[in-house]
Amino acid sequence: MAKKKAKKKTTRPKTKRASTVKKPPARLVELAPASISSAERDRAREVVRRLGKEYPGAGVMLNHRNPWQLLISTILAAQCTDAKVNEVTPELFKRFPTPKALAAADVRTLERIIHPTGFFRNKSKSIKNASRAIVERFGGKLPRTMEEMLTLPGVARKTANVVLTDALGVNSGVVVDTHNIRLSGRLGFVKTADPVEIERFWIAAAERKDWPVVGHLLYSHGQQVCGRKPRCGECVVSDLCPSRESS
Ligand code: SF4
Question: Catalytic positions, please?
Fold first, then answer.
């Protein structure tokens, strides 16, 4: 009986198995601008221009001395006022002045210090773990890209945008907080409360040089005029707003 011809082994070029190929998570990709009309863009830019005149000093309200402190303060500011965060951070940064010190902190001590900011258990873990990641993966310094920022525990796009823009001078997006979400809806720019979609609107609408200030302007306007009960009679953009209430 004829011997079966041995199958010749072919050597394939070595490729990584699909499961081991690292794909960038969707949330890490730089956002694509939304598709908007030129009329919407012009109206949005006029809103930014007027709010810029109204709130010339708009900027980050969280006290900090370096990018890491701003990161920690911004994590603590979730569901909390900036003023309350500013009350607890002097003790926090005095006791734990560096990422290394905070990474090694006793969780109970952290919880006690940041208790007034609310959600103190989760926030303690986030600031400790973020600090540890900064020490272990970034040599104690904050990363300078959105992709790397988003790998830190407790850091989502809003926090990353605040730190990149206000502390590191990296202009990679627009901060979307609750004020931005509310105002963007009332001004009729979006029909969603999804922060990513709202950021996509603003990076399409605003000039890139204005991206760092858009979030601060909407925050100021939301705090001072367009809060839960809007004071449309005092609003400098009321003629541009489909939600204005006659008063
Ligand atoms: S007109 Fe009223 S609802 Fe519209 S942005 Fe101004 S305060 Fe807010």
Answer: 158, 177
Identify the CATH number of the domain in which residue 121 sits.
1.10.340.30
Pocket of ligand 1 (CB under 6 A): 183, 186-187, 225-226, 230-232, 235, 237-238, 241, 243-244
Residue 208 belongs to what domain range? 35-59+173-240
Tell me if 135 is assigned to some domain.
yes
Q: d(Cα 8, Cα 128) in Å, to the nearest integer?
A: 56
Pair 43, 101 in one domain = no
Whole-angstrom distance, CA of residue 151 vs CA of residue 213: 25
Rounded to two decimals, what is the model's pTM?
0.83
Same domain, 179 and 139: no
The token duo for 91 is 């003790």
Q: Which residues, other chains included, contact 164 with Cβ-Cβ below 8 Å and sequence gap of 6+?
A: 144, 146, 149, 170, 171, 172, 173
Q: Please give the chain's pLDDT, 247 residues, in tens.
A: 444 444 444 444 444 443 344 444 444 456 889 999 999 999 999 999 999 999 999 999 999 999 999 999 999 999 999 999 999 999 999 999 999 999 999 999 999 999 999 999 999 999 999 999 999 999 999 999 999 999 999 899 999 999 999 999 999 899 999 999 999 999 999 999 999 999 999 999 999 999 999 999 999 999 999 999 999 999 999 999 999 986 5
Q: Which residue's CA is the closest to the ligand 1 atom numbered 2?
A: 232
